[in-house]
Amino acid sequence: MQNISNYLKATLFFDDINETKVKRENSFTIQQFHYECTRKRNNTGMPYGPTMTTLLQIEIKSLPNGYLKELYKRLDEQTESQFSVVFNATFRTDDYGENMLSDYDSGLIITGYVISVDETFGIWSEPEAVLPQEERTTDLMMTNIKLLTKSITYIGCDSYQKRLYINF
Predict the structure, then answer these.
(1) Which of 108, 111, 102, 62 minimizes the C-alpha distance to 87?
(2) Do strands 54-62 and 137-155 pair parallel, antiparallel, or not at all (unpaired)?
(3) pTM value?
(4) Taking Cα atoms as reference points, which of 93, 97, 107, 86 lies closest to residue 163?
Protein backbone atom coordinates (compact mmCIF):
# COMPACT_ATOMS: atom_id res chain seq x y z
CA MET A 1 0.00 0.00 0.00
CA GLN A 2 1.21 3.53 -0.71
CA ASN A 3 2.57 5.98 1.86
CA ILE A 4 -0.13 7.63 3.91
CA SER A 5 -0.14 10.72 6.05
CA ASN A 6 -1.55 11.28 9.53
CA TYR A 7 -0.88 15.02 9.35
CA LEU A 8 -4.19 16.87 8.98
CA LYS A 9 -3.17 19.27 6.26
CA ALA A 10 -6.39 18.74 4.28
CA THR A 11 -9.59 17.53 5.89
CA LEU A 12 -12.88 16.44 4.30
CA PHE A 13 -16.33 16.98 5.82
CA PHE A 14 -19.58 15.65 4.36
CA ASP A 15 -21.30 19.02 4.99
CA ASP A 16 -21.09 22.70 4.07
CA ILE A 17 -18.95 24.21 6.85
CA ASN A 18 -20.65 27.60 6.36
CA GLU A 19 -24.07 26.16 7.22
CA THR A 20 -23.28 23.43 9.76
CA LYS A 21 -21.01 23.17 12.79
CA VAL A 22 -18.76 20.19 12.10
CA LYS A 23 -17.06 17.85 14.55
CA ARG A 24 -13.57 16.43 14.32
CA GLU A 25 -14.88 12.85 14.57
CA ASN A 26 -16.92 13.45 11.39
CA SER A 27 -13.85 14.45 9.40
CA PHE A 28 -11.56 12.44 7.15
CA THR A 29 -7.89 12.96 6.36
CA ILE A 30 -7.45 13.64 2.65
CA GLN A 31 -4.53 11.79 1.13
CA GLN A 32 -4.93 13.42 -2.28
CA PHE A 33 -7.49 15.20 -4.40
CA HIS A 34 -7.63 16.28 -8.01
CA TYR A 35 -9.85 18.37 -10.23
CA GLU A 36 -9.30 20.43 -13.34
CA CYS A 37 -11.53 23.34 -14.33
CA THR A 38 -11.24 24.47 -17.94
CA ARG A 39 -13.06 26.86 -20.27
CA LYS A 40 -12.99 27.33 -24.01
CA ARG A 41 -10.61 30.00 -25.25
CA ASN A 42 -10.57 32.16 -28.39
CA ASN A 43 -7.58 32.86 -30.70
CA THR A 44 -6.11 35.38 -28.26
CA GLY A 45 -6.46 33.07 -25.27
CA MET A 46 -9.39 34.83 -23.61
CA PRO A 47 -11.82 32.42 -21.93
CA TYR A 48 -15.47 32.36 -22.94
CA GLY A 49 -18.50 30.22 -22.21
CA PRO A 50 -19.18 28.09 -19.15
CA THR A 51 -16.61 26.03 -17.28
CA MET A 52 -16.48 22.52 -18.74
CA THR A 53 -17.74 19.43 -16.89
CA THR A 54 -15.41 18.62 -14.02
CA LEU A 55 -14.84 15.43 -12.05
CA LEU A 56 -13.33 15.88 -8.62
CA GLN A 57 -11.49 12.89 -7.17
CA ILE A 58 -10.79 12.66 -3.44
CA GLU A 59 -8.90 9.89 -1.69
CA ILE A 60 -9.43 9.65 2.05
CA LYS A 61 -7.99 7.48 4.79
CA SER A 62 -10.65 5.79 6.85
CA LEU A 63 -10.99 2.79 9.07
CA PRO A 64 -13.77 0.36 8.10
CA ASN A 65 -16.04 1.25 11.00
CA GLY A 66 -19.28 2.46 9.41
CA TYR A 67 -18.53 6.18 9.02
CA LEU A 68 -18.94 5.95 5.25
CA LYS A 69 -22.65 5.04 5.34
CA GLU A 70 -23.54 8.66 4.56
CA LEU A 71 -21.36 8.55 1.44
CA TYR A 72 -23.05 5.40 0.14
CA LYS A 73 -26.44 6.90 0.91
CA ARG A 74 -25.57 9.92 -1.27
CA LEU A 75 -24.37 7.60 -4.05
CA ASP A 76 -27.62 5.63 -3.92
CA GLU A 77 -29.90 8.70 -3.82
CA GLN A 78 -28.25 10.38 -6.81
CA THR A 79 -29.02 13.82 -5.42
CA GLU A 80 -26.91 16.92 -5.10
CA SER A 81 -24.57 16.85 -2.07
CA GLN A 82 -22.19 19.26 -0.41
CA PHE A 83 -18.68 18.51 0.80
CA SER A 84 -16.09 20.76 2.41
CA VAL A 85 -12.31 20.54 2.13
CA VAL A 86 -10.40 22.67 4.62
CA PHE A 87 -6.66 23.21 4.85
CA ASN A 88 -4.78 23.28 8.16
CA ALA A 89 -7.89 22.86 10.29
CA THR A 90 -7.84 23.71 13.99
CA PHE A 91 -10.30 22.11 16.42
CA ARG A 92 -11.35 23.31 19.87
CA THR A 93 -13.41 21.65 22.58
CA ASP A 94 -16.76 23.40 23.03
CA ASP A 95 -18.91 23.71 26.17
CA TYR A 96 -20.32 20.20 25.61
CA GLY A 97 -16.91 18.52 25.37
CA GLU A 98 -17.00 18.01 21.59
CA ASN A 99 -14.10 18.85 19.27
CA MET A 100 -15.53 21.37 16.81
CA LEU A 101 -13.88 23.04 13.82
CA SER A 102 -12.76 26.46 15.01
CA ASP A 103 -10.38 27.77 12.35
CA TYR A 104 -8.66 26.92 9.06
CA ASP A 105 -6.39 28.59 6.51
CA SER A 106 -8.59 28.22 3.42
CA GLY A 107 -11.07 25.79 1.97
CA LEU A 108 -13.39 24.59 -0.75
CA ILE A 109 -17.10 23.87 -0.59
CA ILE A 110 -18.01 21.46 -3.36
CA THR A 111 -21.57 20.92 -4.57
CA GLY A 112 -22.09 17.93 -6.83
CA TYR A 113 -23.15 14.34 -7.27
CA VAL A 114 -21.34 11.26 -5.95
CA ILE A 115 -20.82 9.04 -9.00
CA SER A 116 -18.28 6.50 -7.73
CA VAL A 117 -16.90 5.11 -4.47
CA ASP A 118 -13.95 2.71 -4.62
CA GLU A 119 -12.41 1.10 -1.55
CA THR A 120 -8.97 -0.41 -1.10
CA PHE A 121 -8.14 -2.48 1.97
CA GLY A 122 -4.61 -3.12 3.11
CA ILE A 123 -2.14 -3.38 5.93
CA TRP A 124 -0.30 -0.29 7.07
CA SER A 125 2.66 -0.35 9.38
CA GLU A 126 4.77 2.40 10.90
CA PRO A 127 8.32 2.13 12.22
CA GLU A 128 8.64 1.21 15.91
CA ALA A 129 9.70 4.68 16.98
CA VAL A 130 6.54 6.33 15.65
CA LEU A 131 3.69 4.31 17.14
CA PRO A 132 3.26 1.99 20.14
CA GLN A 133 3.10 -1.78 19.49
CA GLU A 134 -0.71 -2.02 19.60
CA GLU A 135 -1.09 0.67 16.91
CA ARG A 136 1.76 -0.40 14.62
CA THR A 137 -0.22 -2.63 12.27
CA THR A 138 -3.78 -1.67 11.45
CA ASP A 139 -6.27 -2.80 8.83
CA LEU A 140 -6.71 0.34 6.80
CA MET A 141 -9.23 1.33 4.22
CA MET A 142 -8.53 3.96 1.58
CA THR A 143 -11.63 5.32 -0.14
CA ASN A 144 -11.58 7.05 -3.53
CA ILE A 145 -14.62 9.26 -4.18
CA LYS A 146 -15.52 10.74 -7.57
CA LEU A 147 -17.89 13.69 -7.74
CA LEU A 148 -19.56 15.23 -10.78
CA THR A 149 -19.08 18.83 -9.74
CA LYS A 150 -21.82 21.47 -10.04
CA SER A 151 -20.04 24.33 -8.22
CA ILE A 152 -16.95 25.03 -6.16
CA THR A 153 -16.82 27.84 -3.62
CA TYR A 154 -13.31 28.97 -2.70
CA ILE A 155 -12.97 30.27 0.86
CA GLY A 156 -9.96 32.41 1.67
CA CYS A 157 -8.78 34.63 4.47
CA ASP A 158 -10.86 37.56 5.74
CA SER A 159 -14.10 35.73 4.80
CA TYR A 160 -13.35 36.03 1.07
CA GLN A 161 -15.53 33.68 -1.01
CA LYS A 162 -15.72 33.11 -4.75
CA ARG A 163 -18.14 30.62 -6.35
CA LEU A 164 -17.40 28.91 -9.65
CA TYR A 165 -20.40 27.37 -11.41
CA ILE A 166 -19.64 24.41 -13.65
CA ASN A 167 -21.57 23.29 -16.72
CA PHE A 168 -22.54 19.63 -16.54
Answers:
(1) 108
(2) antiparallel
(3) 0.79
(4) 107
